[in-house]
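Lab notebook: predicted structure, single chain.

Context: the supervisor wants predicted structures on file for every construct in the current expression panel, including those that have not yet been purified. This is the next one on the list. No modifications to the sequence; it matches the entry in the shared construct table.
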Amino acid sequence: MKRLLRPTAGFTLLEIMLVVLIIGLLIGMAIKFTAGHLGAAQEVRMRGDIEQLRSHLLVYQSQNGVLPTTEQGLKALITKPDSEPKARNWKPLLEEPLLDPFQQEYFYVQPGKHNPSSYDIFSAGPDRIPETADDFGNWKKSDP
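Prediction complete. Output recorded below exactly as produced.
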């Protein structure tokens, strides 16, 4: 009796390699097309955080009559400052410090270098070093 050879069910090595190649190409294209949006998302988040801090500082100033000094910093929104000028009607406005997208606390300088009549709030940026070109703060204007 003659036996017929039947093909076995399964995939050949070539078919598996082709599928892996296609998946790799799709992942590579996804990374390429989304990589440019990370910087924009970080900027949007920093803008939102800075606006939130500005609102808290406005409330702080209205309650206490003064803004925190550079030495008191944004911590004055969390814990009552001990140094002068004393907060006359202090209440906590934040539970914990806001962190920028690079996991660093925002910097606060009063009076500001960029805003001498008020204050600067800024992120030190990806290099995490303040006063460098990649800093992002309340002096940067929105794009039209």
